[in-house]
Amino acid sequence: MTFKLDLFLITLAVILSPVLSDLIFTKVDRRIDLTSQIVRISSTIRVENEGTDVVSEVLLIFPVEQAKYLSHIQATSNEGKGKAKGSAINFPVNVVYPKEMPPTLKFYSVSLPKGLNKGDSLTFDVFAVFTHLLSPFPETITQADVQFVLFLDTAYILSPYTVKVQSLSVKLPEARIEFYTKLENTKIHGSEIKYGPYENAPPYSFALIRFHFENNQPFPVAQELVREIEVSHWGSVQITEHYNLVNGGAQNKGGFSRFDYQARPFARGASAFSKLVAKLPPRTHSVYYRDEIGNISTSHLWGNLRKTDLEIEPRYPMFGGWRTSFTIGYSLPLQDFLFQDQGKRFLNISFGSPINEVVVDRLIVRVVLPEGSSDFSVSVPFSHKQWHEKKISHLDIDGRPVVVLEKENVVPEHNQHFQVYYKFNSISMLREPIMLIFGFFVLFVSCIIYMHSDMSISKSSPSYLAKLQWDEVQTVIQQVQNIINRCLTIHDKLDASLRDLSRTGDVQACKAARKAADASLKELSKELKSLLSFLQSAQQATQILPKVEELVAKERDLQERLVVKHMTVVDCYEKKFGGREIENRVASQQQRITTLRQEVDDLLEFIDEI
């Protein structure tokens, strides 16, 4: 930038630009604020017409290299003092292209409310805001270094008119000043440097001045900010802001030491920032702060009836050149921002970013209106790009109309209210409830129809008949298992009667138990016979039948051996044999009984798993 500005000044020195009118600036007071990353220049200009023709516009000039960073310019009336001073009137400011002017200059026309006749004068204020004019110098610093920046301008106002008297005041941060240009009538008071007054400067006069000073203020730059404002007539305005943020200060070189950052105050990075403050409207609620990883808990919220402050901390301190992305979301009461006028509804809400002193390179504002909105228009107090889109959300049919506004090089001065006007029929609010009611009605009716419908396969189909037969086979197998289990229970009772015999010696009771067991086993045997006959005739039981027959055979063998054992033991007790001799007589039978019982249990378990 330094080279280009010097080249511009050389060009001015050799070009004899014509005087555009008989206007003169009788007095100019300029004030440049360099206390943050944003350069703000305020000028109070008194203009007088010395010619005979009526003049209705005043031209302002900026170098092209400076004008491309011009974010906001405003001209207002400055008539009267104190109580006599009325409310400020904004004058229209537009870019113009006068003939035979050097391409290194950019001209802006301030349209006056009424023409100036000969001898008439007018005092007005010009407020210009620039971004990216402060160049870090050096461009890279370490974690422990402070940040110095370089700024260039001219001590004389660049004007196509003669300037009778002018002065300049430059406000710097309360920090060290490495260098500043010293001209005639230059004074310094603390962090403020004053130039002038200078008299009778001809048109296109200039005097290059440079400032090299310490500036450790945060340089947050949102390379892109997407604000989505969604209007719901059910009671809220939902705002979602997606930030791609970078520290626009001097680039950090070398590694980052978390230990030094936390333990050594001098190495914390004077120009780094670890928190940002967003000024939200009063009565803000449902606030969240997150990024791609998830919710970020390092945030604090304060609020009262007049304001709401949200303090957010990124996941890491932001040194020069470091980037981060995050999302802020919050809800606002609908009645505070939506109004009606002449049959239309209009949304009145702020345009720019709520974060303090952030520069936005590209801002996109998406206003999502309720479905069914029509005839919408936008009123924004500055130039912008605009187009329309559609957004499909839950329970939408045609989609919601979206008004998209785009502006580049946005500063806090753009955080003004704008209006979106549209028509909306209140009956359209019933669309979503009716859709929900109808949807639930269809769901319930479908469930009722389903529950009362026969969804089974045709009863004459082979697959259906095969399924029925298999179900019958499974039922019979379960009955067989139940009978076998009952037989095993009777076997256990026979063993229990033998234990009672050894304890009491009551032979008759033991015989009675065996007689009852024989009767029960015969009845169960009859039931098994009919069930086996069914399985033998069923095609679906072909694979399982051998196992069932094996189970029945082993149970019968077990039953016979238990009866023989029982008779042997009773006979021995009647003959008064000793306990040792009785055990020897039934030892071989008992071993076989134990083996058979285990085999029967294994077969039952196998069949149960089929």
UniProtKB/TrEMBL annotation:
Pathway terms, separated by semicolons: Protein modification; protein glycosylation
Chief place of localization: endoplasmic reticulum
Transmembrane stretches, start-end: 433-451
Key word Coiled coil present: yes
Keywords per UniProt: Coiled coil, Endoplasmic reticulum, Membrane, Signal, Transmembrane, Transmembrane helix
GO term, biological process aspect, one: protein N-linked glycosylation via asparagine
InterPro entries for the chain: Ribophorin_I
Annotated signal peptide: 1-21
One CC-aspect GO term: oligosaccharyltransferase complex
The keyword Methyltransferase belongs to this UniProt entry's keyword annotation: no
Residue ranges that the Swiss-Prot or TrEMBL entry lists as coiled coil: 507-541
Subcellular location: Endoplasmic reticulum membrane
Membrane topology annotation: Single-pass type I membrane protein
Family indicated by similarity: Belongs to the OST1 family.
Summary of the function given for this chain in its UniProt record: Subunit of the oligosaccharyl transferase (OST) complex that catalyzes the initial transfer of a defined glycan (Glc(3)Man(9)GlcNAc(2) in eukaryotes) from the lipid carrier dolichol-pyrophosphate to an asparagine residue within an Asn-X-Ser/Thr consensus motif in nascent polypeptide chains, the first step in protein N-glycosylation. N-glycosylation occurs cotranslationally and the complex associates with the Sec61 complex at the channel-forming translocon complex that mediates protein translocation across the endoplasmic reticulum (ER). All subunits are required for a maximal enzyme activity.
Subunit structure: Component of the oligosaccharyltransferase (OST) complex.
Protein name: Dolichyl-diphosphooligosaccharide--protein glycosyltransferase subunit 1
Organism of provenance: Cucurbita argyrosperma subsp. sororia
